[in-house]
Amino acid sequence: MSNITVCARFRPLNSKEKLNGDADSVCIRCIDSETFVFKDDKDEELAFSFDRVFYEESKQDDVYQFIALPIVRDAVNAINGTIITYGQTGAGKTYSMEGPGILECDEQKQGLLPRVVKGLFDSLSPSDEEVTFSIKLSMVP
Ligand SMILES: Nc1ncnc2c1ncn2[C@@H]1O[C@H](COP(=O)(O)OP(=O)(O)OP(=O)(O)O)[C@@H](O)[C@H]1O
């Protein structure tokens, strides 16, 4: 795998979209876990491939395991990593990064941020007394 991993994630339709009948106009068709087909307004189909495509039913933990866990493991060995979400408003960036609520939410729905913090502390080996870990956290709102 290259140094940069690029994934696509589709969120489920919300209740308003379902009421509007938007399910009929979904223009994405799954091919496999790396490729989807996008049907444009001229009904032309274009295939797009990524390192991984997370479809509507994907779990927060699937996203963590694939994207963030390798970065957490590297971070413990002093290798920098960055996770960036990109997409239009309402696409699910905050949900993927934080979950439905950063302070309280169902554990299964926790996003990358709380999982990374937990993963980081879980990865530190307390048995090796020769090694000192220093963790600094900064956030850009
Ligand atoms: N994978 C998902 N499963 C269930 N609900 C989701 C998912 N992704 C997003 N949502 C819901 O969709 C709505 C919009 O998501 P979110 O706020 O994360 O979008 P955003 O990309 O951060 O938007 P903005 O750029 O406007 O801040 C929220 O109500 C969120 O809970």
Model description:
Keywords: ATP-binding, Kinase, Motor protein, Nucleotide-binding, Transferase. Belongs to the TRAFAC class myosin-kinesin ATPase superfamily. Kinesin family. InterPro entries: Kinesin-like_fam, Kinesin_motor_dom, Kinesin_motor_dom_sf, P-loop_NTPase. This is Serine/threonine-protein kinase KIN2. GO terms for molecular function: kinase activity. This protein has about 140 residues and is of the alpha+beta class. It has 2 domains: about 1-55, no CATH class; about 60-140, no CATH class. Helices cover about 30% and strands about 15% of the residues. It is built from 4 helices and 5 strands; from the N terminus they run βαββββααα. The strands form 2 sheets. The protein has a 3-stranded antiparallel β-sheet with strand order 2-3-4, with no helix packed on it. The chain has a two-stranded parallel ribbon with strand order 1-5. The longest helix has 17 residues, at about 60-75. The model has no long low-confidence stretch (mean pLDDT about 90). It binds adenosine-5'-triphosphate. Adenosine-5'-triphosphate binds next to helix 3.
